[in-house]
Amino acid sequence: MNEAAAILPPTVGWILLALFSALWVGLGFYWGRRNKSFEDHALAGRNIGLALGSATAAATWITSNTTMLAPQFALELGVWGMLAYTTASFGLFLFAPMAGRIRKLMPTGYTSGDFFRLRYGRTAWSIFMVYTLFYSLTWLVSMAMAGGILLNALSGIPYAWGMTVILGVCVAYTMRGGLAAVIGTDFIQSLIIIVGVVIVGFAVLSHVSVDEIHHNLEATRPALLNVLFPAAIMAIFNNLLFGLGEVFHNNVWWSRAFAFRDGVGGKAFALGGLIWFPIPVAAGFIALASGALNVPVPAADMVGPLVVADVLGEFGAIAIFIVVFCSLASSLDSLLAATSDLITEDIYRKLMRPDAPLETLKKVAQYVTLALGLFTWAVCLPRIGTLASVLFFAGPLVGSMIWPIVTGLYWRRASTVGAVGGMLLGAGVGLVCYFAIGWYVATLIATAVSMVWVLACAHFSKARFDWAKLSEAA
Amino acid sequence: MLEWQSDSPVSLEISTSPDFSKTKQLYAGSAHRYFLSGLANGDYYLRLKTLEGQTSTPLLVSVVHQSLNRALFLVAIGALVTLAVVITILRGARDE
């Protein structure tokens, strides 16, 4: 896409960008004014209630991929592909009971790194850190790139400028406001996204009927309706397990489990999953309508925004611009905050300065957020790689961590040998399958291999972990 | 992804026969790219047609999907692994 092909005039794009940038930065600074220590900054005082908790779970999970990759799944893999993307909600549903368990076992914990270090020791923690930092940085880069690409496609704002502004805004309010600002803005962003998607969905349906969409698909893309479309049915469990791996291991979700008020975590994550579930269905449906609407699709990951903009004109372009900006900001800020907390707590505090005062840790977290933003910006500037390939490369890594985490939380006999071997073997075999077969099997194979190893080790293990050791994190 | 160059609007047609005896129109308009997906196994011929009726040289596209048996095998593994995760979480800590 280029400026000439954009539907929204660049001036309108810049005005919207300026207005929402000012809103998020202003709110971030306002909500961050009471943060005094690292605990306030990283975990919002551990006092987040159900409404904010549910909204932040849903908003964080509505990423640029929900608006770009879910339609791409539908266009490439059909109805099953669309449903495969919705299985990512299972990550939130299944993390709901785990959040309560985490809060109970680690009442003073800060990060998912704390869990790995205390539960399995330094070796497992080191592997976890490599995997999670790779995944988190991949996610950050893919979203910042998506921001630049989408703003350019919708309004003609040059890629480099759009990416820089959206990243800069998120870094600014996350640095100043910490998790309180992230969760507060998430609440507003989730409301805007839901209202926007509902309006856009009904508007598209008023232009084309379900029958017309079905006839068009049957005539021009019949495999998208095939219930036995091989690549599509392969993607179902691969995507589901990718979602589980992402949520189960990443500090974005663990920091929320620690930050939510006692008893809130389970309900908040379950409600967040319910709120999130229809979003990729709506986004995928819009993509399936592209043929019936005679909308040319120049790139699969742009189909959703382009259909909306093409059908609804300037109003649609404005609506999708705002929805996309909110979905990007709600995930970028969460990831910046959670990753900076992970580096501050697990590397700076635990490895370098165990006696650092909480006020100093807050400052370190702010500088780490800035450094993450600069790193992401430098990687994104050349605009290399496609969204899907960048994202799915991390699939085997996160899939291999599912079983070490689940058994580590619930089974005293889960062992370090099981966790280390499960992560190394699972990720190794999964990556081989990624290149030998394709991304759509890599996470599934990684999780299955890891499961076999972890369960075998637990079966033969004589060790019985003392849960009290997990409460030493603070 | 199909890409072409044209100064005027075109229609993109697809057929299963090289002589285009039976065609379906995939797109008509001024775009220069089209994302092709969702075709069943087989050989397909694609061509561009201008408003004046001029046609481009046909392009042959062969579609070969993954093995269905392998896909179903992977679905079975996926279902088993997912079920095991769900059961482990819902059973909770039984050995405390």
TrEMBL record, chain A:
GO molecular function, one term: symporter activity
Domain of life: Bacteria
UniProt keyword list: Ion transport, Membrane, Sodium, Sodium transport, Symport, Transmembrane, Transmembrane helix, Transport
Localization terms from the record: Membrane
GO biological process: sodium ion transport
Topology with respect to the bilayer: Multi-pass membrane protein
Pfam families noted in UniProt: SSF
Transmembrane stretches, start-end: 12-31, 43-62, 82-102, 123-151, 157-175, 187-208, 228-248, 269-295, 315-343, 364-384, 390-410, 417-437, 443-461
Annotated protein name in UniProt: Urea transporter
